[in-house]
Amino acid sequence: MSHTVTIRTQTVTSSSSTIVVNTGYLKTWSGILKLLQLALGIICVGIVGHQYNKYIYGSDAQLFFFLITTTFMIGTFILLLSCLTSFSTASILAKTIHELLYHSIAFGLLLAASLTLMVHVSNNKRYNYELILGASICGIVNAALYLMSTIIALRTYRGM
Questions:
Q1: What DSSP string describes 104-144?
Q2: CB neighbours of 157 closer than 8 A, spacing ≥ 6?
Q3: Full-model pTM
Q4: Which residues form the MARVEL domain (predicted)?
Q5: What CA–CA distances, in Å, run from 109 to 59, 66, 86, 115?
Q6: C-beta separation of 120 from 62 below 8 A
Q7: Count of Cβ atoms closer than 10 Å to residue 78 Cβ
Q8: Tell me: the pLDDT tens digits for 134-156?
């Protein structure tokens, strides 16, 4: 018994450049923590950047805090942006040691910078010290968020 089969092929091309945003990543703990870390980093950089004046109040502790906070704010922004714009990045990057190392180093350096700034501000109460003290407290909260991200990255890396 023979029968006839017709195969029809069609080629479709599209020229639209659609940007896909992985909004589901923001519903995970890692996404929420990265978003909060970025927000607190922006607040800390804004306060310290506005209050920094090396001739009146600036100090090495303030500069150290400013550099560390800016560094990890930019790094977290790049991580968050890459996880939001790619579906595979969020799942693959979480299983590598990169996030574990990044978050643990960010936790340690940001905690050290925040505590150094807090001690310096407490010892030298000068003009507008409340804002700088607030920035150092935000830095400690941000360090706690990085610690939480380190724990999540460790559990993900070990496959728990």
A1: HHHHHHHHHHHHHHHHHHHHS--TTHHHHHHHHHHHHHHHH
A2: 94, 95, 96, 97, 99, 100
A3: 0.83
A4: 25-158
A5: 18, 12, 29, 10
A6: yes
A7: 10
A8: 999 999 999 999 999 999 999 98
